[in-house]
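Hey,

Quick one before I head out. I ran the complex with coenzyme A overnight. Inputs first:
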Amino acid sequence: MDKSDELPKGELTVRIPAMPGDANANGDIFGGWVVAHMDMAAGIRAAERARGRVATVAINTLTFKKPVKIGDTLCVYTSIEKVGRTSITLAIEAWTQRRTSRRESKVTEGIFVMVAIDEDGRPFELPAETLG
Ligand SMILES: CC(C)(COP(=O)(O)OP(=O)(O)OC[C@H]1O[C@@H](n2cnc3c(N)ncnc32)[C@H](O)[C@@H]1OP(=O)(O)O)[C@@H](O)C(=O)NCCC(=O)NCCS
């Protein structure tokens, strides 16, 4: 285990249990299920910052480090790395908690780019960040 595995980075945005219906033929959880929840978490965090709708424009450097098992709780952490004119780049980490232990381990990490979009699906300029 390297040092970066010791503690999750960012805000806990999504927690969800992995169910038998989410498993692949090996009995582990589908990578797509994990990515869907990372995408959801990125969307929640980016929409808060944008104060409006967002869409995923890119997922970069996605790495699956460990399998997720049935019964694990998936915990997704989000950090805003960069805010552009219309886009928000987030580092997303997925960690799992085994049923038998409260200790978490990092299973997947990636960089998600979200774009603020208006009612017509066109990018809009992000508002300035304000407190509260
Ligand atoms: C998101 C979308 C509205 C952007 O429209 P667009 O015409 O490409 O917009 P722009 O070229 O003006 O780019 C908008 C922002 O995204 C960034 N961007 C675009 N493509 C990117 C990529 N591949 N990687 C990283 N950033 C990207 C641009 O740099 C720009 O950021 P900035 O304003 O902060 O500088 C459009 O591409 C779209 O609707 N995509 C589908 C979204 C979707 O359905 N997602 C779910 C996937 S199932």
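The pocket of coenzyme A is lined by residues 55-58, 84-87, 113, 115, 117, 121, 123 (CB under 6 Å).

Talk tomorrow,
K.
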